[in-house]
Write a structure and sequence with these properties.
It comes from Chaetomium thermophilum (strain DSM 1495 / CBS 144.50 / IMI 039719). It is an enzyme of class 3 (hydrolase). One of its GO terms (biological process) is chitin catabolic process. By secondary structure, the protein is α/β, with parallel strands linked by helices. The strands form 3 sheets. It has an 8-stranded parallel barrel, surrounded by 5 helices. It has a single domain, classed as Glycosidases (TIM Barrel). The protein has 10 helices and 16 strands.
Length: 356
């Protein structure tokens, strides 16, 4: 256990809104590093992902990428982030725990008081060693009311070992009412500093039809949307300032269609049917914005209909965040952003959040 003299958690930065990014450790293998980002427009990094063991223990998922790989002149992506934290006093770095596949282990750990306590103690030890500012829980996702109740119990256990005056605790949740209704969102938000609301992946390879993957507004009452998800979560009693609105730094591909609402006939891009935002619009296509839905797209080339966000849509979403009193924005994932500052969604979101 770390010393009880651990400093009080980082003071609120002078900016009014959070502009957070996820940095996945596997991006080391693409020659991406945390040092390549522009920290003048980022005040929080979620380092993804640490894993959870059967006994509830939390451990680094890739020792090489996290602690050993040559990275920005130091060892490991974590070494780089801790150095960057010393250079940028406003920067918060949180350890993101879970991610894809965690839906198998979290229900086991969260349902048992001893395993919950192990999780909380272990997370704190891992956080204290390099001086993270806290943790982000990414249980994908509590699948029924019992798991929702256990999720709340897990948050309570975490707060016993990671008190609010010294640690930031957040959780990522989908913008999906069928999952969110399993969770007492109001009580959960009392333990959390922020809910990272995944206001994207509304449509993808799993969908029967094509659609805008991160539209702010729905075109019919049956469709998911960012605004609809925010309205639902706030309606459950979550303060707006505790909601971070998600921006995807990737596009979803639907082949052989020219827009939303068509039968899904397959996808281009990588194995997930996605293209990094830095590779959009696709060669030979023209970028367009659906102003009603607030969604960007390009049609043709090797991606068919690709749905994504661009600077125009992010400006509107950032203005929406301000209007609704939300806490800010987050982006998945930082290395996929455009290198050109005029195209950068992270920079665009930051500027719009902090413009008068």
């Amino acid at each position: 256990m770390a010393s009880s003299f651990r400093k009080t958690r980082i003071a609120a930065s002078p900016v009014m809104y959070t502009n957070a990014v996820y940095w996945p450790n596997y991006r080391i293998y693409n020659n991406d590093t945390p040092g390549q980002l522009n920290y003048s427009c980022i005040n929080r990094v979620y380092y993804a992902y640490a894993s959870v063991a059967a006994d509830g223990g939390v451990f680094l998922s890739d020792e090489w990428a996290d602690a050993k790989a040559p990275c920005d002149g130091v060892n490991g992506a974590l070494g780089s982030l801790m150095y960057l934290k010393s250079r940028y006093p406003h920067l918060q770095v949180l350890l993101s725990i879970g991610g894809p596949g965690s839906e198998r282990i979290f229900p086991i750990v969260a349902s048992d008081p001893i395993l919950r306590d192990n999780f909380a103690r272990s997370a704190r030890s891992l956080v204290d060693a390099p001086e993270f500012d806290g943790i982000d829980i990414v249980w994908e996702y509590p699948a029924n009311p019992q798991q929702g109740s256990d999720f709340l119990s897990l948050l309570a256990a975490v707060r016993i070992h990671m008190p609010e005056d010294r640690y930031i605790v957040t959780a990522a949740l989908p913008a999906n009412k069928h999952i969110l209704q399993n969770i007492d969102l109001h009580r959960s938000s009392e333990y959390l500093d922020a809910i990272n609301l995944l206001t994207y992946d509304f449509y993808g390879p799993w969908s029967s039809r094509s659609g805008h993957q991160s539209q702010l507004y729905a075109m019919s009452k049956d469709e998911p949307s960012g605004a609809g998800a925010v309205s639902y979560v706030m309606g459950c009693g979550v303060p707006g300032r505790k909601i971070l609105f998600g921006i995807p730094l990737f596009g979803r591909s639907f082949l052989h269609v020219a827009g939303p609402g068509h039968k899904n006939r397959g996808f281009g891009g990588n194995a997930d049917g996605a293209f990094d935002y830095s590779l959009l619009p696709r060669k030979g296509t023209k970028e367009q914005v659906d102003k009603r839905a607030v969604a960007a797209q390009c049609v043709g080339g090797d991606g068919g209909f690709v749905t994504y966000d661009n600077p125009d849509t992010v400006k509107i979403k950032a203005a929406f965040c301000k209007e609704k009193g939300l806490g800010g924005l987050f982006y998945w994932s930082a290395p996929s952003d455009a290198k050109d500052s005029k195209r950068s969604l992270i920079m665009t979101g930051f500027k719009m959040l902090h413009s008068s």
